[in-house]
Amino acid sequence: MKLSLIGMAGSGKSYWSCKLAQHYGFKRLWCDDMIAEKLAPELKACGYNRMTVAQWMGFPYETHYKEREEKYLACEREVMMEIIDQLESKGNEAEQDIVVDTTGSVIYAGDALLRRLGQCTTVVLLSTPPEVQKQLLEDYLSHPHPMVWRNMFEQRPHESPLEALQRCYPHLFKSREVLYKKYAHVTIDYYELRQKGFTAKNLLEQVHQAKYR
Known about the structure:
By secondary structure, the protein is of the alpha/beta class. The protein has one domain: 3-Layer(aba) Sandwich (Rossmann fold). It is built from 9 helices and 5 strands, in the order βαβαααβαβααβαα.
């Protein structure tokens, strides 16, 4: 079985991809780590050997953000192309179970790449309902991670950066949900994933049932 997990940061992609690797032997392709590796020379050039990708990228109101957002997306597209080429190959891993732990911004990799991803994996959306938006934004502010805004951020006159983020985030959230649903084969409910006793086995069963329904 070959799966791709998609959804917002905080939806549980990394948690469940690790569970699939630990308990069912899936090979985990962690896009965050692969992108960070490609960006390592860029981070080093900034003079911060221990700088994280999130620190380097910054927030959308910072002057360097646009340029770094584009560099990040270029690396993400390279990573996705490499992963898809690997998935499409007929080598030794053809029969191996694989889970692709994508970033929240994978939906900006381009329609052609995403359709190829959908042809060689079952794309599983880990949903995030509107009522968790506030918590996701708070997590982003308190524990920053690379966030691609794609022109969804605009700071109005006399508006603080925080006020602008709070106003714009719901629009980013809504626009992403549309794209996630466009490419997903299976959607798993946010609350169901968090029910006591829900395991990786349950996740695989849901994927199998939805795929062959």
